[in-house]
Amino acid sequence: MKKNIIRIVSAFLCMLMIAGIIPAVPATAYNKATYDDIKNSSTEELRKQLEELGALLKETQDSLKEAEKLQAEASEKREIYLTMQALYEDTLKYMESELVLIEKEAEDIATQIAVTQVEYDRQYASFLDLLRMTSEEGEANYIDILLNASSLSDLLARIDRVSAMIKYSDHIMGSLTEKKKTLDESYAASLKKAEEQNERITLYENKKAELAEWQRENEAAISVIENEIADLIAKSDTYTDRTDVLDAEFQQMITELQAAENKKRAEAEEKARQEALAAAEKKRLEEEAARLKAIQDAAKNQGFLWPLPASCLTVSSSFGNRMHPVYHKMQFHYGVDLPAPKGTAVYASKDGKVVAAKYHVSYGNYILIDHLDGTQTLYSHLDTGSMLVSANDVVKRGQRIAGVGTTGVSTGYHLHFEVRVNGNCVDPLKYAVAPGKLYIYG
């Protein structure tokens, strides 16, 4: 039974809050727990381990980047060495082929020198024979050749022949000497060129060997770097795995601690909110009780005011049994009908609180006011859109609350006015004092 009462009261309070009677206390958003709020020795130890692992991981990754940079540089050097080696090999092949040509040229020149030497030796022997003959016989032989001429023309011819012989011998010896000199120079030049080419080949072969040594050193360096990179990658993976595990453990711990702290804060916040709500509700109830008591006290000392202007003093249907104008059968009439033009002002008969202001299938638009002294008044058939008050509003005696209409079951514009005492309908004309003589027709 007690639980049912609590549920009913709770539901009633909710309805009042929805209606705006009880001010709802908003739930303030509490500050979510941060790491600083929940940290302890365990979390700090994990955090420090994570920082140390993070530093090691960064250091390893920096070293890995440096090693990869060195590997890239070594690989570039390898490409340069390979390019240079190919160039040296092509150059050596060209030099070797050029050397073959130079050696062939030297051989040809040597052959020519040998042929010239043979000719030179033959001509030189002839020349020596001529010289011996001239030396042994003297100039007499040439004179004999001339004296044996048969005529002047023969003499002249013999003179020319002797001169030609001497000149020819000189020319042949000079030509052979010059040719041999030229061949000797060409041969010496070829030998020198071959020697220079051999020196260049030797230089390039040394360069090639030096390059090969550099390449071997570079390959060894690359091998060392690759091993270092493999070690760094393995170390980085190890640190990463340890970091992931430790971070997951750290985050789980933080999440659980923050959840616990946030729950505690939420509970404290909710408790404070409920306390504030209870205090606000207590204050509101006290204020409402004081206000209602004031209304009640005032209502007790008040009479019932005529609900229409002083010009509206006609009663078309009185309190009690009557023939219903619509249903055409005898029915008890719980109030009085007061004819008035459409929109005529309807006033609150006494101070009170609006219990209802809505539509009813029979009453049409109606307003029910509780005067808090055991009496209530009802005003119905009100004009559409004319109601000026709502449920839970407090009204004063003589306050305009609506306008006359003909809504609901009605045959014309009029106000159906009821007075209730302790929940029972009574004759309104015995309570509400008319401001003049009434004209009663039914």
Commentary on this structure:
The structure is a single chain. Strand 12 and strand 13 (about 425) form a beta hairpin. It contains five helices and 15 strands. The chain starts with a helix and ends with a strand. The strands form five sheets. Strands 5, 7, 8, 9, 10, 12 and 13 form a seven-stranded antiparallel β-sheet that branches. Strands 1-14 form a two-stranded parallel ribbon. With about 450 residues, it is an alpha+beta fold. Residues about 1-25 have low confidence and may be disordered. The longest helix is centred in the middle third of the chain and has 149 residues, at about 150-300. Helix 4 packs across helix 5 (about 150-300). Helices cover about 60% and strands about 15% of the residues.
Q: Would you spell out the secondary-structure blueprint of this structure?
A:
Layout (H helix, E strand, L loop, with lengths): L1 H18 L15 H4 L2 H97 L2 H8 L4 H149 L3 E2 L8 E2 L4 E4 L6 E4 L2 E4 L5 E3 L4 E9 L3 E7 L4 E8 L11 E2 L4 E4 L10 E8 L2 E3 L5 E2 L5 E2 L2
Parallel strand pairs: 1-14, 2-15
Antiparallel strand pairs: 3-4, 5-12, 6-11, 7-8, 7-10, 8-9, 9-12, 12-13
Structure described in brief:
The chain is an alpha+beta fold and 442 residues long. It has helices at residues 2-19, 35-38, 41-137, 140-147, 152-300; strands spanning 304-305, 314-315, 320-323, 330-333, 336-339, 345-347, 352-360, 364-370, 375-382, 394-395, 400-403, 414-421, 424-426, 432-433, 439-440.
